[in-house]
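TICKET: design request
STATUS: open
ATTACHED STRUCTURE:
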């Protein structure tokens, strides 16, 4: 799933990139049909409101990185994070060093690279089952070393 998320995040230039999004207006950009991706930030906090179609699992990184094995080992040694859905904690999964294929579009701020490449993906991730229709809150906070990220999502799930 990491490779798919990184490709999703790397398909948009900065102006419409979901990671650079400050309010949720880019949430629906290039979403696949079988899962709904949410994004962290390039550092710092954001508040986003997003409409999510029902019937799809939701995948979000808590804190993540792409690089090589050594970079990921260093990153994961200090990776920490919390996720709270509707007031209830959700335990993130640790992905230490997955080999991933990423495809980046020109001008994307996520990888800085155009084209296809293989890398090592790592991070703390959450995969939520499809959410019930209605309003939900999702608070995601992550850090590793001196990097920190956090997003407060107001999600509205609509019937498929």
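STATUS: resolved
RESOLUTION: sequence designed for all positions
ATTACHED SEQUENCE:
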């Amino acid at each position: 799933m990491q490779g798919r998320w990184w490709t999703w995040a790397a398909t948009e230039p900065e102006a419409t990139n979901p990671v650079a999004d400050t309010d949720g207006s880019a949430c629906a950009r290039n979403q696949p049909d079988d899962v709904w991706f949410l994004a962290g930030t390039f550092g710092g906090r954001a508040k986003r409101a997003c409409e999510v179609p029902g019937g799809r699992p939701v995948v979000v990184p808590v804190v993540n990185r792409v690089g090589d094995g050594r970079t990921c080992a260093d990153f994961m040694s200090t990776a920490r994070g919390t996720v709270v859905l509707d007031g209830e904690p959700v335990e993130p999964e640790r992905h230490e060093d997955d080999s991933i294929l990423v495809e980046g579009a020109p001008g994307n701020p996520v990888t800085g690279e155009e084209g296809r490449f293989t890398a090592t993906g790592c991070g703390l991730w959450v995969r939520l089952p499809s959410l019930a229709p209605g309003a939900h809150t999702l608070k995601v906070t992550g850090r590793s070393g001196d990097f920190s990220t956090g997003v407060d999502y107001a999600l509205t799930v609509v019937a498929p």
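CLOSING REMARK: The helical segments are 2-9, 69-77. Residues 99 and 120 are 5 Å apart (CA to CA).
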